[in-house]
Amino acid sequence: MRRYLPVLLALLAINHFAHAEAASRTLDDFTQPNAWQAIATDDIGVSLRPASGPHGKAICLDFDFNGVSGGPSLRRTLPITFPDNYALSFDVRGNMPTNDLQLKLIDASGDNVWWYRQQNFRPTDAWQTITANRRDIVSAWGPAQDRTLRHTQTLEFTLYAGQGGRGEFCLGNLRLTPLPPAPVDEPTPASLTPNARLMRQARSAPRGIYPRGFSGEQSYWTLVGVDGGAKQSALLSEDGAVEVRKGGWSIEPMLLDGDTLIDWGTVKATQSLQDGYLPIPTVHWQADGLRLDTTAFANGTSARSNLLLQYRLHNDGSQPRTLTLALLLRPFQVNPPTQFLNTPGGISAIRDLERDGHGVQVNRALRVVPLQTPTAFVGSRHGELTLPQRLARGERPRITALHDDSGYAQGALLYRLTVPAHSAVTLGLVVPSDASSFATPADAMRWLQQQRDEVAAAWREKLDRVTLQLPAAQQALVDTARSAQAQMLISRDGPALQPGTRSYARTWIRDGAMMSEALLRSGHADVAGAFVQWYAPHQFATGKVPCCVDARGADPVVENDSPGELLFAIAEWWRYGHDRAGLRRLWPHVERTVAYMDRLRASERTPAQQGSSRYGLMPASISHEGYSAKPMHSYWDDFWALRGYDDAVELARVLARHDEAIRYAASRDAFRADLQASILAAVHEHRIDFIPGAAELGDFDATSTTIALSPGGTQAWLPPALLQQTFERYWQGFIARRDGDKPWDDYTPYEWRNVAAFVRLGWRQRVPALLDFFMADRRPAGWNQWAEVVGRDAREPRFVGDMPHAWIASDFLRSLYDLFAWERRSDQALVLADGMPVDWLRGEGIGIEHLRTPYGELSYRLREHDGRLELSLPAGNAMPPGGLVLRWPYAGQPGGTARLNGAPVAWRHGEIVVRSLPATVQIDPAR
Fold this sequence. Notes:
Blueprint (H helix, E strand, L loop, with lengths): L4 H19 L1 E4 L8 E4 L4 E9 L2 E9 L7 E10 L4 E10 L3 E8 L6 E9 L6 E6 L4 E4 L9 E10 L5 E13 L15 H11 L16 E4 L9 E4 L4 E2 L6 E8 L2 E3 L5 E6 L7 E7 L2 E11 L4 E11 L5 E10 L21 E5 L2 E4 L4 E4 L5 E5 L6 H6 L8 E3 L6 E10 L3 E9 L12 H20 L3 E3 L5 H17 L15 E2 H13 L3 H11 L12 E3 L2 E3 L6 H16 L2 H24 L31 H20 L3 H29 L15 H8 L10 H19 L7 E2 L5 H9 L5 H9 L14 E2 L14 H15 E4 L4 E4 L13 E8 L2 E10 L2 E6 L10 E4 L9 E4 L2 E2 L6 E4 L4 E6 L3
Parallel strand pairs: 37-41
Antiparallel strand pairs: 1-12, 2-5, 3-4, 4-12, 5-11, 6-9, 6-12, 7-8, 7-11, 8-10, 13-14, 14-15, 15-16, 16-17, 16-22, 18-19, 19-20, 20-21, 21-29, 22-28, 23-24, 23-27, 24-25, 25-29, 26-28, 30-38, 31-32, 32-33, 34-35, 36-37, 38-39, 39-40, 40-45, 41-44, 42-43, 42-45
Helix pairs in contact: 5-16, 6-7, 6-8, 6-16, 7-8, 8-9, 8-10, 9-10, 10-11, 10-12, 12-14, 14-16
């Protein structure tokens, strides 16, 4: 019987297949090509034609991306009811560059979408069948709570931009095949990934053998690179491993003390930056009288930068120590497996290692060049024991070359070192920008230190253009302000400002606009100018401003904050740099953007919308991340649009475009009236007492509403009671979270923007609580940075986005500068020290030098000494039309005496206004 069993099984399989084919239902035989519609996102050309397929008729989509992102699509109405288990099949052929194939299934509401995706898709000239099983089709987005796919109304095939280009995509024989119920224990694709396999192995290995992110703990890291060099940037983990390039393998230090392995799991680790703020990070290990400092930095240009690593081993004991330093080349990113967006974290394959006279070449590409000759180079393929475990057992598997098809090859440069008592030994590595040879300098350590000194000096020049003075206890704020600039500069790709280099290695106009403002105030007008002049030409022919731009081109996703943000970025660059010729070159983009905003606004001013809270707003969009499931009429969009209209009026006046200035002002005023009416209508409709995030939801989102104040400048006309209650509600929720009265799991440090709102509301006494809370969540604190997501449990693994996150760095920096000075747009005044806690003014007080403003540089000193408060404003300072304003900093109403340049001066509405310089204001408050 056994000899016939394979035959019987084969016959059963054939029979089952025949029944399945018989049960297969043709959804479309393509005999009616007019049922299909060729559509495309902005500026992509498409056309549709009938064709012959492998089983009857077919259709072909001809397309041309024209250098933008987005994609062409084939779309038709096609109601489908899905069985419990199924296979959806279709035949394709084509000729085109590599792009992503997306099959979208959309329900009758149009809001809920499921999809099948095949990345890096490139069809052949011959017809082929693609089959998507039930488990391959997943929920994409939508507000429905039940995400089970049962019924859909519309079907869409999209070629989403990878390489873009032009070509044809042909489709035929669309069918649905019911399948038997899937096994309950059907494995999921995620359980079969290399990351998942190695994470299981890490759980059974001693802690420290595998990177922390593979061992069930949240890991943290920082960015290493040059200004504008995001593509070649490295990451340094809190444990000392260095990811040499984006998505690349890492170099990880370990020590062998006899048969004892010293790794991240057996040491006390701390982190620091050179001088407390420069982007030259170090990880410090301490263990058994030993210290190992791992320092990483980069030199070169944005096009070609070298990674330099310095290892300094200290012996703090009274006797010499002989140890082996192992610098391991490992197939792990520093970016951990929990990171999934755009650059998935975890494994980075090493298949080839080769040792030669110029160092070690990895994957026949990047080279690691030791500055001192190692004692040995060892390596091994992946097995039951990792290379560190083999080294700890005394094995020294020397190699000159190694190949491992699995991608798990590991190597190590071994240095046998004797370190005298109370002394240190320093070693260095260089990872050149490409595979070209690197000539080792004769005096390696002198050369390495010289490179470090030159890099430090260059960064000091960039980061020290504004000088902040705060009490010694607040030095971390000063250092983090300078580090924040470096984080924005290293994260940018040439002129393209980006919020990150891994998860968010794309340029959003919203991030770029706010980073531009922070950099302009810091003295980097050249960076902001390069950004707007690079971004603006990506505008679509319709005048639509792309929400995002990357290597694929302009992204057509509808986000209606984008027009206002582009106008704001252009206007801020003009206000700080006054480049009239540059503004003239950008003026056509201003015109097209305002015209596009006018069309958007008109589309929401129909008779059907009259009287609703949506009337006259920017149309619904997903610019606010909280509304990604379904577009909403987000007030975030509207506050940006209003600011954009205001900036367009100013720019038109600057260029003496009088007719445009009048027309833009009329649009602005009408839009502001509609926006104000909408807010009041939404408050009434939802029976709330705060400004909502979206008109139709009545939701609470104070961090989004901050845009109304900064940079929106709407405080003069927003209903005061609603504005106060919005941030009072935020404050009460913040206190409950801080004090443990309100459960929470994580938050995003975009909340730094609320500091700027509190300053404008005059809530000086509440500012320190926010500062203390957010500063405590820098991770690690010594690296002066925030990830996009901060978890309450610092070691619970989660997606954290990029670290550091450059947009959050800008939110922090803008808010910190606002403590020193903020622009009151209602009268074009600069309000000084409005967010400074009173106790910071005592003793040496506070001060700032060379803060850039739209009216010139600002410097001042404010201190309370012997009971007298004194403000010193030197000559040459900025002098805005509304003057320099000092508001009463103490509790209650102004009292005592005040003198301006020795003459008595009266408080008006709680303020003293300085209109000429130099000036000294002295206040003797009544106690």
